[in-house]
Amino acid sequence: MDAAAALAELKELSPQLDAIVLLDRGGQVEAATVAEGAAAAVGRAAAALVRCAEAVARDLGRDQVAQLQAATPEGSVFAVLDEQRLAVATTDSDPTVGLVFYDLKTLLRKLAPSPAGGDA
Amino acid sequence: MWLSLLLATGSVLGTLVYRRRSARRRRRVDVYFADGSMLALEYGAPDADSMLASAGEILAALR
Question: CA separation (Å) from B19 to A104, B13, B22, B24, B44?
Answer without folding.
Answer: 32, 10, 5, 9, 17
